[in-house]
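W.,

You were right to be curious about this one. When I first looked at the sequence I had no strong expectations either way, so I just let the prediction run and decided to look at it fresh. Below is the sequence, 95 residues in total, followed by the output.
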Amino acid sequence: MTSTTSNTVAKPRPASEGLLNEKWDHCLANLLVKSTLGAGFGIIFSVLLFKRRAFPAWVGLGFGAGRGYAECDREFKGAAGGVTKTVGERLKRSS
């Protein structure tokens, strides 16, 4: 009887892949937290001010998700080292 053994060794991930995974984890956690907080504030305002209507909760959820997305977008664009349009224009003017 022969036993089959696999001699595969797990390759270590490149450092850039680990950094990217950490950024994605941070982004998704940030998005979830901000969306939940926005919805929570919307529910509180809905109960206190708007006679239990649904729109403040949805608006709060949207604001929270938008803020989380904007922070995530800024983090990834900054990581890429890209020059935004306005920064590029300022660099051209100063030259």
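Here's what jumped out at me. The chain has one domain: 18-94. And, maybe more interesting for your project: Helices lie at 15-48, 55-80, 85-94.

Coffee later to discuss?

I.
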